[in-house]
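Predict structure. Chain length: 291.
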Amino acid sequence: MNIWKDRNWSPMLLNEIKEPFDSEDYIFEVKFDGIRAVCFVNNNEVKIMSRNKKDISYLFPELENIKKLCNNNVIFDGEIIIIEDGKPSFTKLQERLNLKNKTKIDCFSRSNPVIFIVFDILYENKDLTNLDLIKRKEILNKYIDNDYFVKSEVFPTYGIKLFQSIKEMNLEGIVAKYKYGKYHVNERTSDFIKIKNTYVEEFYIGGFEENNVSGVFVIGELINNSFIYVGKVLISKNEPLFKKIKLCRKSRNYFSNFKKNINYVKPEIKICVEYLEKTKNGTLRHPRIYK
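Prediction complete.
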C-alpha cells in the first residue's frame, strides 16, 4: 500500500492496561483529550483525516499553517485539541466538530483555535512505518513547533512518575510506546499502550434496554432527593446481574431528567462504574462497568 496516495486506512490503535509501569524499552507521553487525526501535508495542501477515515480538513482552517513547515510529502499522526483554562477541553472541541456553517467555522478558528499535537511521522517522501519508533521520532524532531503544530513531549523510562503527575493535574492519562516498535496501519497493537486516569464510582440502575447482542443499564445518582440520569453502560446479557435486573418488577420512571421508552426499575441496586469525566451537564464520558 502507498499510504500517501491511498488514504483509505486507519491509524494504529492502542491497547489498554489499568496500571502504569517503568521500562527502559518504552517512552511515555501525555494522552491528550482530543480527536485522533492523520495529517497529509506538503507545501500545497493540508488534508486531515479522522481515525474513521473522514476528511475533516474543512473544520480546522487554522491548520493550513502546517504546510509552511513542509517542502516534502509528509504524513503526521497526532491529536487535535483545544486548550481551555490551561488544559485540553473536549467540550470546547465538540463545539468545533458540530459546526456546519463556513462563516462560523472561520470565526471559531480565530476565537477558539485548535492545536495539532503531533506524536509520530509516517511518511517523508517515502514510507517510514517500518522504522523503529525512536528513528521516526528523530525525523519528527526536525519539524519546528508553532502556534498550531506542537510535538508531543517524550518522557523516558519512568511511566509511574508521569502518571502520578497526570493524576495531580487531572489530565486524561498517558501512553506507553515501545521504542523499537514499527507502525502498524489498520491494527491495534501492544506497541502503543494507553493508561487512562479514570474515576470509579457507584451508581443506581434505573432501567435497562436490550437487543439481540447485548444489554444496557441506564444509570443515575441521587442528588437533593432527585434521581438524576448520568448515562448508559453496556453489559452482556449473560451476566448474572443483567438477568437479575430483568426479573425485577417493572416500575415507573424515577429519573427526573430522562424520559425514553425503556424498561424502568426502582433504583435500589448499585453498580460500580469507571468513567473518564463528568461533563458540564452531569453525564459520564466513556462509562463502563468496573471490573
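Summary: The longest helix spans residues 159-169.
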